[in-house]
Design goal:
The complex is a heterodimer of chains A (275) and B (165).
Chain A lengths: L1 H10 L1 H18 L4 H65 L1 H4 L4 E9 L5 E6 L12 E4 L2 E9 L4 E8 L3 E6 L5 E6 L4 E7 L9 E4 L11 E10 L5 E8 L8 E5 L5 H11 L1
Antiparallel strand pairs in A: 1-2, 1-12, 2-5, 3-4, 3-12, 4-5, 6-7, 6-9, 7-8, 8-11, 9-10, 10-11
Chain B lengths: L2 H18 L13 H13 L1 H18 L6 H14 L7 H5 L2 H22 L7 H36 L1
Helix pairs in contact in B: 1-2, 1-3, 2-3, 2-4, 2-6, 3-4, 4-6, 6-7
The chains are: A alpha+beta (275), B mainly alpha (165).
C-alpha cells in the first residue's frame, strides 16, 4: 500500500512539488503579519540593501538632470515670490506714509499712480493714471509724503500730465521756514534754484523751503526742499541759493493730486493790478 | 560543478542584477524580469520538477527582499516554472533556446507570471484591478521579451559552435 502510494507520488512528482510549492506560498501569504516572518524579511532587506548601496549613487547620477530642472524651477518660483514680497513691503511702507498726508493737507486728495516719467530732460514730466473723470483739472498741485512734486498741466479723461519740479517751465513761490524769506523756486536744467533772495536775507545751508502763501496755485507750507548751497556773487544783488528737492523723483511711484484750483477772483485781481 | 550548483549561482547573480542594475533601465516605468528568462532556460533544459522548485526558491528570495506580500512571487514563479517545464525536450532543448521559440516561450511565461503576480498584488489597491493588471503585465512582459532576444542569440551561437564540432 505504502509502496503504491510512493510510486504514485513519484509518477506525479511534478504535480506534487507544484502543489507543495503552492501550499507553502499560500501559507506564507497568510503569514505576512507574523513577527518571525517580518524579522526574516528585515534581515534579508538589510543584506540586499548592502549590495544595492553602490548602485544608489548611479541612480542618483541618472536623476541629476531631473533634480536640477526641478531645483531650477523652484528657484525661479521662490525668487519671483521673494521679489513680490519685497515689492509689497516697500509699497506698504510708501502707502503708510501717504496715508498720513490727508491729515496734514486741508484739501481733498486724489490718489494716483505714476504710469510714465522722465527725470533726465530739461522739461521733465509725469503721467498719472487718473484724469478728468476722477476730478483732475489743470493747475492742480501734485504732492506726496516727501513734499511738492509738481503741477498738472494737461488732462485727458483717464490720464494727467504733470510738470514736475525738475522742469524748466515750473515755478513756485517759496519761503524759508526758519526766517520766512521769500523766493522763486525753479529748475535751471541742472539744479533746483531758489531765486530773488536778496544778499541781506538770512538763508543758510540746511534751511527748509516750503510753498508760500503768495502762490495762487500751491497751498502754503508744503515742503519743497532743503537749501544745499548758498553763494554770494560779486556785483550781484541776490544770493545764489540751490535746493535739494524733498521728493525723490527717481523712485516716485504714488502721488496725490490736491483738489485745489487757483481762485479766479484772486487771479483776476492780480492780473488787473499788474496792468 | 554540478548543474544544480551552476543554476543556483546563475540564479543568484541574475537576482542581484535584477535588484541592482535593472531598476536603472526602466522604460515607461517598466523593467524586465530576468528571473523569468532563467526559468525559461531551466524549464526547457531540466523539466517541470526543477523549474518549479527553482521558481519557488528564486521567488521566495525575491519576496524576502521586496516590500510586497511574502509568498506572492514564490507562488507566481512556481506556477511559471511548472509551465516552463512543459516545454522540456531533452533532444531539442538547445535548439529551442537558440531559436525564436525561446522568445515566444519567454513572452508566454512572462504574461502568465505577471498576470498572476499583479492580479494578486493589485487586489484592494487599484480601483480597476483588471486594467492595472493588464497594463503592468503587458509592459513588463514586452520588455522582458525584448531582453529575451539577447540570451537567444547567445544560445544560438553556442549551439552552432558545438554542432560544428
Amino acid at each position: 500500500m505504502l509502496q503504491r502510494l510512493i510510486d504514485l507520488l513519484h509518477a506525479f512528482r511534478d504535480l506534487v512539488v507544484l502543489g507543495a510549492c503552492i501550499v507553502v506560498s499560500v501559507l506564507l501569504l497568510a503569514a505576512n503579519d507574523n513577527p518571525q516572518v517580518k524579522r526574516i524579511r528585515s534581515v534579508a532587506a538589510v543584506l540586499l540593501g548592502t549590495v544595492q548601496e553602490p548602485f544608489r549613487s548611479v541612480t542618483a547620477y541618472f536623476d541629476l538632470r531631473t533634480q536640477n530642472d526641478i531645483l531650477r524651477r523652484i528657484n525661479v518660483e521662490l525668487s519671483d515670490e521673494a521679489t513680490q514680497l519685497r515689492e509689497a513691503r516697500l509699497e506698504n511702507a510708501r502707502l503708510r506714509r501717504l496715508l498720513e498726508l490727508p491729515h496734514r493737507i486741508p484739501y481733498r486728495l486724489i490718489a494716483a499712480e505714476v504710469v510714465g516719467k522722465s527725470v533726465n530732460l530739461q522739461r521733465n514730466t509725469l503721467v498719472l493714471n487718473i484724469g478728468r473723470l476722477d476730478g483732475v483739472e489743470p493747475l492742480m498741485p501734485v504732492i506726496n509724503d516727501q513734499g511738492l512734486v509738481g503741477v498738472v498741466t494737461d488732462v485727458s479723461d483717464r490720464y494727467a500730465v504733470v510738470n514736475i519740479l525738475l522742469n524748466t517751465e515750473f515755478r513756485a513761490t517759496g519761503k524759508v521756514q526758519r526766517t520766512r524769506v521769500d523766493g522763486i523756486v525753479g529748475w535751471d536744467g541742472n539744479v533746483v534754484t531758489f531765486r530773488n533772495v536778496a544778499r541781506t536775507m538770512d538763508v543758510q545751508v540746511g534751511d527748509v523751503v516750503l510753498t508760500s502763501e503768495y502762490s495762487n496755485t500751491f497751498p502754503p507750507d508744503i515742503r519743497i526742499g532743503v537749501v544745499s548751497l548758498v553763494e554770494e556773487r560779486p556785483g550781484s544783488l541776490f544770493k545764489s541759493v540751490t535746493l535739494t528737492p524733498g521728493v525723490d523723483f527717481v523712485r516716485l511711484e504714488e502721488v496725490f493730486v490736491v483738489d485745489a484750483q487757483p481762485a479766479e477772483e484772486r487771479t483776476g485781481l492780480e492780473r488787473r493790478g499788474a496792468r | 560543478m554540478t548543474p544544480h550548483v551552476r543554476y543556483a549561482i546563475i540564479a543568484f547573480v541574475l537576482f542581484l542584477v535584477q535588484m541592482t542594475f535593472v531598476p536603472l533601465i526602466p522604460v515607461a516605468g517598466f523593467t524586465p524580469d530576468l528571473l523569468i528568462l532563467w526559468l525559461v532556460a531551466v524549464g526547457v533544459r531540466r523539466g517541470r520538477l526543477e523549474a518549479t522548485l527553482g521558481g519557488f526558491l528564486i521567488g521566495l528570495l525575491h519576496d524576502l527582499t521586496a516590500t510586497q506580500f511574502l509568498g506572492l512571487a514564490a507562488l507566481a514563479k512556481s506556477i511559471t516554472g511548472f509551465v516552463a517545464g512543459s516545454f522540456y525536450n531533452e533532444n531539442t532543448a538547445e535548439q529551442t533556446l537558440g531559436s525564436y521559440r525561446s522568445v515566444l516561450i519567454a513572452l508566454f511565461l512572462s504574461v502568465l507570471h505577471n498576470f498572476l503576480y499583479y492580479a494578486i498584488l493589485f487586489q484592494g489597491v487599484e480601483r480597476s484591478v483588471l486594467l492595472a493588471t493588464l497594463v503592468s503585465t503587458l509592459g513588463t512582459s514586452l520588455y522582458t521579451t525584448v531582453v529575451a532576444i539577447l540570451p537567444m542569440f547567445w544560445f544560438s551561437r553556442r549551439f552552432r559552435t558545438e554542432w560544428a564540432r
